[in-house]
Design a protein that fits this description.
By secondary structure, this protein is an alpha+beta fold. It has two helices and four strands.
Length: 165
């Protein structure tokens, strides 16, 4: 609104007037308006705070997941760099030992196959996967339920194909 428009009267209907045009109109209380604005700002602040708390919780979960991914990658790197005197073949299980100098190495011999006392510290058995990742042998027989989880989520969302489920 320019300075020229300040003296202009509302020319539309009384129902669209920005100010009371009749003595019968409800009284305008600036204190009530101020408290209504304060309530609205308080509610806005509460909603914004709640949304930011949800985002902060998601950030914390993502940070935890990132730490887990980095720890898993470090373990994978240790396994990949372990000494090995034979060609590694995906699908086979290898047994990780540690020499006294702290160097890990893979052997084809399981702890029970040494025929007596194991000369090295046994660290664990791992299956080499086709993508050259390592799965601990005690988890190698567990089925991967990721595909089933995805199918369930699609079914819940109404997106599963008719041949599934």
């Amino acid at each position: 609104m320019s300075n020229d428009d300040k003296g202009m009267l509302h020319r539309g209907g009384a129902h669209s007037s920005p100010y009371p045009v009749s003595r019968l109109a409800p009284a305008f209380d600036s204190g009530e308006l101020a408290s209504e604005v304060a309530r609205a700002e308080s509610m806005l602040s509460a909603r914004t705070g709640a949304k930011l708390r949800v985002i902060a919780d998601q950030i914390k979960l993502l940070q935890q997941e990132a730490r887990k991914v980095l720890a898993d990658a470090k373990e994978e790197q240790t396994l990949t760099r372990a000494q090995c005197a034979f060609k590694r073949i995906p699908g086979r299980t290898y047994h990780l030992y540690c020499k006294t100098v702290g160097e890990p190495f893979f052997s084809m011999l399981a702890p029970a196959e040494w025929g007596g006392e194991i000369p090295y510290a046994f660290l664990g058995s791992y299956r080499l996967e086709t993508d050259y990742s390592w799965t601990p042998a005690d988890r190698a027989d567990r089925p991967d339920d990721t595909g089933e989880l995805v199918t369930q989520l699609l079914r819940i969302g109404g997106l599963a194909s008719r041949g599934e489920g």
